[in-house]
Amino acid sequence: MSELVTFGETMLRLSPPGKQRLENARELEVHAGGAESNVAITAQRLGTPATWLSKVPETPLGRRAVGELRQHGIDTDVVWSHRGRQGTYYVEQGGSPRGTNVVYDRADSAITTASAHEFDLDRIQDAQVFFTSGITPALSSSLRDATANLLKAARQGGTTTAVDFNYRRKLWSPEEAEGTMTKLFPGIDILVIAARDARTVLGFEGDPRQLAHKLGSQYDFTTVVVTRGDEGAIAWHDSVVHDHDAYETDTVDAIGTGDAFTGAFIARRLDGDDVPTALEYAAATAALKRTIPGDAALVTAEEVEAVVSEHGQDISR
Length: 317
Fold this sequence. Notes:
Blueprint: E1 4-7, E2 11-15, E3 29-33, H1 35-45, E4 50-57, H2 60-71, E5 75-81, E6 88-92, E7 101-105, H3 121-125, E8 129-133, H4 141-156, E9 160-164, H5 174-184, E10 190-194, H6 195-200, H7 208-219, E11 223-227, E12 233-237, E13 240-244, H8 257-270, H9 275-289, H10 301-311
Parallel strand pairs: 1-4, 1-8, 2-6, 4-5, 8-9, 9-10, 10-11
Antiparallel strand pairs: 2-3, 6-7, 11-12, 12-13
């Protein structure tokens, strides 16, 4: 039985090679990518058995997405659907000042009709951690209910619940996100949130250390991790705030960095590490992910260990 179970949509990511524009590209690279499956892949590669739950169309594209995830070693427990479609998204990489552009094509995808009763709740209740992200309830009203019900089922089974807030402005407004996510907060043990989202969506003020403390105190989370991009992350746990800088890295593909961080943090906590050590390994995993094309952190535990050993820092509390 898997120690970690995740729930959410995985799309097919299509990208022009190099930094070509979509409008004149003659070929596209294909990767499977989704926040929850990315977290599962990272944890699995670091030694934590992981399962990904989802609802997927019974089509060649749906099978393509699931097949790729299985190649990474995670267990895929999916509801196959004859309604809906396989979500896709397009990534156009570009340097400054153009930057990277993401175009979603995921409306009416199969997972938008998912409900909690379609899944094996024993899978969740037998796991140590159940994880999902704020992307999932943003996709449909059905998924808002499903997310709430799966978190409730996890809690009832004694499973620790973890959520990455993961606000996406192309999916919903700050007001919609705040209204939905704060209703889910009572069912969440571990919250991961970007400092910018705590400010712009939840209306919290202060530096990341203050944000972590305020969130943990107000919503009674067990652990709050506030990410701050190139500056690393802050974690609040047992009323103590821990700090870790980001590692320097040559960025090849930044997409999936946050998922790699979260997957590694959860994996190390499940392995018995304290919060400061889990932060250290999460930062190292995130740095390695940025050197790898595609969404998934195709890293090994030995590579992460080498980064920590070579570039590790004193951990402040």
